[in-house]
Amino acid sequence: MHPAFSVIFLTTLIGAGQGLFLALVTAEAFSHMGALALQEHNFYSNGSLLSLGLLIAGLVASFFHLGHPERAWRSAAMWRTSWLSREVIALPAFMSVVFIYGLLHYLEWNPKIFGTAALPETDLTLMVGIIGIVLCFTLFICTGMIYACLKFLQEWHTPLTPINYTLLGMSSGFTLATAFATQYSLEMTGLFGTWAIILTLAALLTRTASLLRNKRIKHRSSLRTAIGVRHNNIQQKSQGSMGGSFNTREYFHGMSAAFLKSVKWIFLLLAFPLPLLLLGMGLSNDVTVLLVLAFIVQYVGLIAERWFFFAQANHPQNLYYQTI
Amino acid sequence: MTQLALVIDLNVCVGCHACVTSCKQWNTSGAAGSLMDDNPYDKDPTGTFFNRVQTYEVGEFPNTETVHFPKSCLHCEDPPCVPVCPTGASYKRKEDGIVLVDYDKCIGCNYCSWACPYGAREIDEKQKVMKKCTLCVDRIYDESLPETERKPACVLACPTSARLFGDVHDPESEVSRAICESGGYPLMPEWGTQPANHYLPRRKTTIKLHEDELTRADNPLKKDGRLPRTDPDAPFLEDSVSW
After folding, report:
1. Residue of B67, B113, B129 lying closest to A250 (CB–CB)
2. Which of A109-118, A170-179, B110-119, B189-198 shows the lowest mean pLDDT across its residues?
3. Is the CB of residue B47 less than 8 Å away from at least one CB of chain A?
4. CATH for B4-200, among 2.40.128.20, 3.30.70.20, 3.90.226.10, 3.30.420.10?
5. Separation between Cα atoms, residue B120 and residue B52, nearest integer Å
6. Cβ neighbours, 10 Å, residue A217
7. A84 to B115: CB separation less than 8 angstroms, yes or no
8. How high is the ipTM of this complex?
9. What EC number(s) does this enzyme carry (chain B) (predicted)?
10. Under an 8 A CB cutoff, do A151 and B46 touch?
11. What is the pLDDT averaged over residues A71-88?
């Protein structure tokens, strides 16, 4: 498939924004359970603002891959069948909850709610945060399923696809949260940093698993099933047109095989071991710059990872377009 | 339930591209607006076509055969492009099974073209919506055309009658009989899309010759010649019955 940078930026930016929000709510939950000191409200409101900024940037980037962005509001219509429709509903819903969460903290309006035998007393912001967590995971799954539901794009059709989206988004978000928390509290930095390392390692495992799986895929379609001629020796002689067409542009990454391979190693290096190293060094020596660098390096690595994810998929329609 | 579709006979297709050009012309001049046609006479021409003809060589030289392969939207019975469309612009008509795109709703996100394993859907880069073969829905129901012309443009244009149009759910129709009698098959059946368009395979017509059919069994003179005439004045059997 031809990787579209608008979609690459969309998924990586919202992934980081979602992960950051998860980190904030985790921190608030831990504070309520007494494991950590409660932070000031502007820790959460500024964090939500940063998260919202990333989500909005991702949403803006996504409009560039539409032919008619002014009709984008229609894309919520087929939520019963289309994962893209469901994502289009989940993303604004999640963004609203992030906004409300940030606003409640900014206004420092945090009344206690519930307080019954069935539902223990809790803060409104924590409740909003939990709703946000549910929507966050819904959004991760919807985004991943957009690609995973296409059953003949065998490289994508695996539960590992939404799992990778989730874990990679969470790890980049927690890395960002680590860098963010250095402005506020050492304790939070340590919490977020530990989780960032754990999530990055988990993401490395699952992404490697999907790479290994994709290496061993046996493609079910061949030129024999594509044109229905049962012969072992079929060669395409002509595509029927001498110029390019949508079919030769949209489904192929346009680069050499060597380039594809190099991008794989680049993302494996930049998204996993390098950020782990930088996180480790930054946390142990308490150097903010290293933590910020960890996020930047990991983000660039994730852009390469997303590019590779799109480029690796082999669409069966390419069987019909082998020679000019 | 009607399911209109095309049957393409690979046995007689000569790869002349008449279907390609007639389809392009009809869909450029019709009510649906033009199809993109960029740099038609320059280097690097490109454009949106609903129907394309590819050519394949089967076998190893010198035992090869050239197969010309026209392909347009197969109007699947379980179309993968319909459930993935976020706006509902991609839909399958209940009355005749044609899969269409509503150009007023389409946002041009390309998701349906990713979902089609046959690569039948293309974006029109000028109009920025997804387009595909409409099975000439604007021709087949057009009352102002004579009855015999209410067929897709490609079917009328084909000089070898390689393209047949009809209802594949009607066992008496021309297309159903062609599929049944000539071994018509769908493309990429492993994906379960159940395409309505079928293809008729290459067939060779042969007869079985037996050795003893090549020589006459009763040939007493062992030669092919006229039997000897009897004396012309002598009576022969035919005299009694001829007049």
Report:
1. B113
2. A109-118
3. yes
4. 3.30.70.20
5. 9
6. 12
7. no
8. 0.90
9. 1.8.5.3
10. no
11. 94
Tell me which chain B residues have a C-beta less than 8 angstroms from the C-beta of A236: 54-57
Question: What is the value of pTM for the model shown?
Answer: 0.90
CB contact under 8 A, B114 and A83: no
Q: Which residues of A touch B55 (CB under 8 A)?
A: 236-238, 240
Q: Are A120 and A126 in contact (CB under 8 A)?
A: no
- Distance CA(B233)–CA(B115), nearest Å, equals 89
pLDDT greater than 90 at residue B193: yes
Q: What share of chain B is helix, strand, coil (3-state, %, to 5)?
A: 20, 20, 60
Distance CA A270, CA A175 (A): 13
Domains of chain B: which residue ranges? 4-200
